[in-house]
Design goal:
- The structure holds 2 protein chains of 2 kinds.
- By secondary structure, chain A is of the alpha+beta class.
- Helix content of chain A is 28%, strand content 25%.
- Chain A contains 9 helices and 19 strands.
- In chain A, β14 and β15 form a beta hairpin.
- In chain A, α2 runs parallel beside α3.
- Chain B folds into 2 domains: 182 residues, Thiamin diphosphate (ThDP)-binding fold, Pyr/PP domains (Rossmann fold), CATH 3.40.50.970; 128 residues, Rossmann fold (3-Layer(aba) Sandwich), CATH 3.40.50.
- In chain B, 38% of the residues lie in helices and 20% in strands.
- Chain B contains 13 helices and 14 strands.
- Chain B has a 7-stranded mixed beta sheet, with helices on both faces.
- The model of chain B has no long low-confidence stretch (mean pLDDT 97).
- Classes of the chains: A alpha+beta, B alpha/beta.
- At the A-B interface, α2 of A face loops of B.
Chain lengths: 424, 327
């Protein structure tokens, strides 16, 4: 069972389009599968013969479970049959994973690919949509692809029925164009984080279940509490100044970029905050995918910086600029604004001193960043002026207890007040 | 430059041509003593008298025939139809005589005649009085078809039409007679037939519009700029036949997307012709199927709300542009 939607864990065979013994070409639809989101077509990457159907229409299979055996006509599959019946794994039976074709209903949500993106002249998208195996390309797109030596099979069409249109070629050219000269001039090497964070689920302990249900009864489905901390920003502002002195105007990093990085690094030290309460278990994420709230004309959207804990400031900064621009142009893809593990909302630049933000479920927490203002403080018995920034974290009490949240904020505060901590 | 309504720009063109060439005369129902049903001929009868501005009975076939005969005899008639809907009664004279005479006489008789009047819908004049007939007439070899959308175009094109040695059908729009625009003061100002005008330059999508749909296309272009940052080019062919294919094709080669907005019905319309022409000459440049906005496939309704639904409007054009831009 291939992964046909970003969130599916199992799929139900809706129907087999090909029968046992039937031969098929590359890109032909083998079966239709009901995922958690939509009915998707499962198509073949290469030609072959459908030798044996292991899961018939109506049967459900977990991701990776064998649903059929494909190969050459007349091939001996007895060994594979006994293997799949004993352990349910058909990995060997399908030497190549089927290419996933998205049905129109699902086309807004391409499945995130979890492999390293090839830095070739033109980026390769794995899920090139085809309509009944026939590639649809607008004439100008075909011409541009030919002129620029782009393999149309590497392009995912964004037009109706997956039609490859001018915009898709332009984007491919832009991506390709970026990849080549960028290696020399960009102040960072792009990391290889592409997909959403991997995670592990731990069964919910009895005590957590009781805490969760009691608190939910008291305050609503997400029992939220708030923790506020004052953070002295002077060191950070000075550090930022030093960094920016060596960067050209387009690459300068913002305070918010540093906050994202600090939050991401703090999250890795406090797994309960980088988590999601899901009734029977608590889901712990292995990387910090930070949702950054961006105001747009229609309201608010939170594009996600994947694996911010592993990325450098320049990369985070460039990514946020890119995502914010896409958000304002309404060009964000669903996988770019869903599935964060933690969110940050910053109204500091709008003159807000302190506020509380609403948790974006199923995340366990969000931090609300106020502005850094010169404030009289007492240091060593003396009144002095420091840039103080107030940060309030909204916590889902089902996952995070007061002390857990407070410890996270301590780490976060420490990182911002002594930015060198982030080097560790 | 002076600012004139399309009505007055047409009036100026007629007046200047009557003065310039003694063979020019105007003929039609109510064009003389009543100053014209839509006042396009206002003041001309008073100024030039019965010989140059001639009232006719309600006999479209008859006065169209008199016009064709006069043109064959060497005059330059300008025949007004109170609306092009009434020209259907005179279609035999236009199609079988004016259009064919030069050919069938072996080149002996040219027919330098202009038929003019309002075409398309007005305000709630119902099915029989709301038709846009350009595709019907443009189908016949031997006829030129002109459709202005601004005061300057109206004046410059009407003067060229009167000076042309071929029968020219000059299709105005009642809803547009009051539209104002700058017009050069030069009394020899003409605009050649067969030359399109780029009313607005753009890079992302081309709208080809004519007559009433030109101002709608301009508004749609503005809306696309403001709301979607899409740069729309608006082209007004001005002359439907001969059609300025190059200007349209070059625009589509630049923008890769084409919407055609027209007031006539959809089937076998001028838009269909343009769409085919673009397919022929710019197929490899298209990024989306050509989209046409036309009047609904039904007799034009009388009821105000239904009439509004049937006709092209800014929102319909915007929706079409979004569609071809995949927005």
């Amino acid at each position: 069972m291939p992964k046909l939607s970003p969130t599916m864990e199992e799929g139900q065979i809706s129907r087999w389009v090909k029968n046992e013994g039937e031969a098929f070409e590359a890109n032909e639809t083998l079966a239709e599968v009901d995922t958690d989101k939509a009915t998707m077509e499962m198509t073949a990457l290469s030609g072959g013969t459908l030798l044996k159907i292991l899961k018939g229409a109506g049967d459900t299979a977990a991701l990776g479970e064998a649903i059929a055996i494909i190969g050459q006509k007349g091939e001996d599959i007895s060994a594979l049959l006994s293997e799949s019946s004993s352990n349910g794994s058909a990995k060997k039976a399908e030497p190549t994973e089927p290419v996933v074709v998205e049905s129109p209903a699902e086309k807004e949500q391409p499945a995130p690919q979890a492999e390293t993106r090839a830095v070739a002249s033109v980026p390769v998208k794995e899920d090139a949509p085809k309509s009944n195996g026939r590639m649809i390309v607008s004439p100008i797109a075909a011409r541009m692809a030919a002129d620029n030596g782009i393999d149309l099979r590497s392009i995912a069409g964004s037009g109706p029925q997956g039609r490859i249109i001018k915009r898709d070629i332009e984007e491919a050219l832009a991506d390709g164009g970026k990849a080549r000269p960028a290696a020399a001039s960009k102040p960072f090497t792009p990391s290889t984080i592409v997909g959403a964070s991997p995670f592990r689920d731990e069964n919910t302990s009895k005590i957590r279940q009781v805490i969760a249900s009691r608190l939910a009864e008291s305050i609503g489905p997400i029992p939220t509490f708030y923790l506020t901390v004052e953070i002295e920003m002077d060191n950070l502002l000075a550090t930022r100044k030093q960094i920016n002195a060596n960067l050209d105007d387009d690459s300068k990093i913002s305070v918010n970029d540093i906050i994202v990085k600090a939050a991401a690094m703090s999250l890795l030290k406090h797994p309960w905050v980088n988590a999601s309460y899901q009734d029977k278990h608590v889901r712990f994420y292995e990387q910090a995918d930070i949702g950054v709230a961006v105001a747009i004309d229609e309201g608010l959207i939170t594009p996600v910086v994947r694996g911010a804990n592993l990325k450098g400031l320049s990369e985070i900064s460039a990514e946020i600029k890119d995502l914010a621009a896409k958000a304002k142009a309404k060009k964000l893809q669903p996988e770019e604004y869903t599935g964060a593990t933690f969110s940050i909302s910053n109204l500091g630049m709008m003159g807000i001193k302190e506020f509380t933000a609403i948790i974006n479920p199923p995340e366990a927490a969000i931090i609300a960043i106020g502005g850094a203002n010169p404030t009289p403080v007492v240091r060593d018995g003396q009144i002095t002026v420091r840039s103080i920034m107030n940060v309030t974290m909204s916590c889902d009490h089902r996952a995070i207890d007061g002390a857990t949240g407070a410890k996270f904020l301590q780490t976060f505060k420490q990182m911002l007040e002594s930015p060198a901590m982030m080097l560790l | 430059m002076t600012v004139l309504t399309i009505r007055d720009a047409l009036n100026q063109a007629l007046r200047e041509e009557i003065i310039r060439d003694e063979n020019v005369f105007v003929m039609g129902e109510e064009v003389a003593e009543y100053d014209g049903a839509y006042k396009v001929t206002r003041g001309l009868w008073k100024e030039f008298g019965d010989k140059r501005v001639v009232d006719t009975p309600i006999t479209e076939l008859g006065f169209a025939a008199v016009g064709v005969g006069a043109a064959m005899a060497g005059l330059r008639p300008v025949i007004e139809f109170m609306t092009w809907n009434f020209s259907i009664l005179a279609a035999d004279q236009i199609i079988n005589h004016a259009a064919k005479m030069l050919y069938m006489s072996g080149g002996q008789f040219k027919v330098p005649i202009v038929f003019r009047g309002p075409n398309g819908s007005a305000y709630q004049v119902s099915s029989q009085h709301s038709q846009a007939l350009e595709a019907f007439y443009a189908n016949f070899p031997g006829l030129k078809v002109v459709m202005p959308s601004t005061a300057a175009d109206a004046k410059g094109l009407l003067k060229s039409s009167i000076r042309d040695d071929n029968p020219v059908l000059f299709l105005e729009q009642e809803r547009m007679y009051g539209l104002k625009g700058e017009v050069p003061e030069d009394d020899d100002f003409t605009i050649p037939l067969g030359v399109a005008d780029i009313k607005r330059e753009g890079t992302d999508c081309t709208i080809v519009a004519r007559s009433m749909t030109v101002p709608l296309a301009m508004q749609a272009a503005e809306k696309m700029k403001e709301e979607f940052d899409v740069s729309v080019e608006v082209i007004d062919p001005r002359t439907i036949k001969p059609l300025d294919v190059d200007t349209i094709v070059n625009s589509v080669k630049k923008t890769n997307r084409l919407v055609i907005a027209e007031e006539s019905h959809y089937f076998a319309s001028v838009g269909a012709e343009i769409s085919h022409t673009v397919m022929e000459h710019a197929f490899d440049y298209l990024d989306a199927p050509v989209k046409r906005i036309s009047t609904a496939e039904a007799p034009n309704p009388y009821a105000k709300n239904l009439e509004a639904l049937a006709l092209p409007d800014v929102d319909k054009i915007v929706a079409a542009v979004k569609e071809v831009c995949y927005l």
